[in-house]
Amino acid sequence: MKHFVDIHTILSTAEDMDDIHDEPQAASDRLNEVLHLVYDMSSDDIPSQELENMLSFVWEHWHPDKHLSDIEVDDLVDWVDHLMNTWDNDAYNGEE
Q1: Which stretch of 48-52, 76-80, 86-90, 92-96 has the lowest confidence by average pLDDT?
Q2: Is 68 within the bounds of a domain?
Q3: Per its UniProt entry, which superkingdom is the organism in (predicted)?
Q4: Alpha helix (H) residue ranges in the chain
Q5: Alpha carbon 49 to chain centroid distance?
Q6: Which pLDDT score, from 0 to 100, does residue 93 have?
Q7: Total number of domains in the chain
Q8: Are 23 and 64 in contact (CB under 8 A)?
Q9: Could you tell me if residue 70 is inside a domain?
Q10: Rounded to whole angstroms, how far apart are CA atoms 52 and 54?
């Protein structure tokens, strides 16, 4: 259930991003936008573990991307939409 996941515990800070990004605050803001998009676009009855896995995947995928702060929000919305439509929680857990 979505309401059991506290999005604020996974949001990034500039300090989380300064090891990779030239503009850590901008990168952090953009990562947080993606995390919020995933949370907001998830159904209310999504299993908590599945949502947590998706949010972790977003971190793993976008944190090291040096161009994160340069990506347009519309492109990120499209990426999240694709993620929501193709997500395979069993594959993420290695249970395929």
Answers
A1: 92-96
A2: yes
A3: Bacteria
A4: 14-17, 24-41, 48-62, 73-86, 89-92
A5: 14
A6: 87
A7: 1
A8: no
A9: yes
A10: 5
